[in-house]
Task: structure prediction
Amino acid sequence: MPFSHHSHSGQFCGHAENTLEEVVQTAISKQMDLYALTEHMPREEEDLYPEEITSSHTAATLAKQFDDYFHEAQRLQKAYAPAIKLLIGMEVDWIRPTSLEVIQGLLSKYPCDLFIGSVHHVHNTPIDYDRKMYIEARERSGGTDEKLAEDYFDLQYEMLKALEPPVVGHFDLIRLLSDDPEASFVQWTGVWQKILRNLDFIIDYGGLVELNSAGLRKGMSEPYPKAEICKKFFARGGAFTLSDDSHGIKQVGTNYGRCLSFAEKTGITSVHFLEKGAATKDSRFPGISTNAVSLIELKKHPSFSYLEGF
Result:
């Protein structure tokens, strides 16, 4: 049963394309069984992205946009129920300690099925938007990729402890705009120990780390996270889910074949997914259960040969 736990649309995200309904229709056309709608949470005024400022967005308009998204997602969930299982949630941005209050407010207002815990900023500066901003964040960390990675994984740990997100988004996003995105984290003892600390914490509370195929379409040889991280997480008893992190219809299911081949070579034998069910694991999300499917079974699904080419 192909699925994704992370997606965006141009209707509710300034750096994506297409409407939310078109994304859902594309997932159906590619025979996806379950798809999570997870638009970005509204951020505070000082954290607007360049395209949001150009579009005259404010914190208030982002909040209204998120409200519009949630109601549209609920409509689509009902309208397409016969064809696909849709989960409704959001991708949260952990930027500073005050992020906690904002996120808690959203979770209390909107009945989410899940949320993705992500870090896109270090020292209040985006680290995956463009190279210029990445370098700015790196300078604030001390001027090296190693120092910035240490700060990134410390901030991630802060997010994990505060939120215990059901799904942890693009675990090693910090490598995307670094000098060498293919470099091993093991070479940096301090960074590697922080990675292992974060993985162990995720295992302790029962979170899922996404195998995020977006790393492949962004030019890297491996999805998020790198193989060295995946091997450690799986060997320690960690559980993975699967995400395309699509930002429009062209990216729905993109590189799933490559992603699953990577998982097999890494030694991963199964992936997990969230769905509506009786056995609730996380009391914050009543009616949502966690299930697993083996990679062997997943690849037998009739859509796999189709998705393999993407």
